[in-house]
Amino acid sequence: MHTIRIALLCLVCACLQACSSLQKEPPKPQQGIAHVTTVTSTVTEIDYVTRQVTLKDKDGQSLTVTAGNEVRNLDQVRVGDEVVAEYVDAIAVFVEKPEHGAGISQSYSMDRAEPGEKPSAIAVTTQEIRATVIGIDYDDRRITVKGPRGNVKTLGVDSSVSNFRHVNVGDEVVVRHTHALAIAVRKP
Fold it and tell me: What is the pLDDT of residue 183?
């Protein structure tokens, strides 16, 4: 589970680090935030034939789930094992020099336990929207951007955003939203 937690933290750090490229010019604005939710349950029953697993949370609530065939190594799970799920929801907003142009992209990755290991999996989805800055009002802290579908929007920029005066017409505003879910079975 520590490996999955480290992988999740590395993912969040990579998202935030992508916000700051090594530039000789003054840094562009960037903001990021991540929320991590962890839920731990205990295996109270398991039927290896039907692949049904009953879990009990810390409040005593039970839930029976069916482990699909994509779940490797179900035979490694025992009554009393803990199932830990961690969900990460991270968003990063940053400005960078023009490179890609306005656009929308999405990526997905997944990994799961190797044969013989306790069951575990991680799935990550990242969505990114890029808009081009077409106007700036530094005094009123407003920017006008043109989105990937040609839509134009004027937005206020909060006073907490540093380096606003380093934004230039033509720069790209990037919003990157990442969801990650990691689930692992471990001995208590």
Answer: 96
- If you average pLDDT over residues 53-68, what whole number do you get? 96
Query: Alpha carbon of 117 to those of 49, 74, 180: distances in Å?
Result: 19, 9, 21
Q: Are 188 and 182 in contact (CB under 8 A)?
A: no
Q: What are phi and psi of 2, to 5 degrees?
A: -60, -35
35: Cβ contacts below 8 Å, ≥ 6 apart: 88, 89, 90
Radius of gyration of the chain (CA): 22
Residue partners of 34: CB distance under 8 A and separation at least 6: 12, 15, 16, 88, 89, 90, 91
Cα–Cα distances in angstroms (integers) from residue 19 to residues 16, 58, 106, 126, in the given order? 5, 38, 17, 14
- Torsion, Cα 132 137 138 143, to 10 degrees, reads -30
- When pLDDT is cut at 50, 70 and 90, the band that residue 2 belongs to is very low
Above 60 in pLDDT, residue 18?
Answer: no
Q: Are 50 and 125 in contact (CB under 8 A)?
A: no
> Which whole-number Å values give the CA distances from 123 to 16, 44, 106, in the listed order?
19, 26, 13
Name the residue with higher pLDDT: 4 or 96. Answer: 96
> Whole-angstrom Cα distance, residue 74 to residue 78?
9
Assigned token pair, 25: 């010019």
Confidence of residue 10 (pLDDT cuts 50, 70, 90): very low
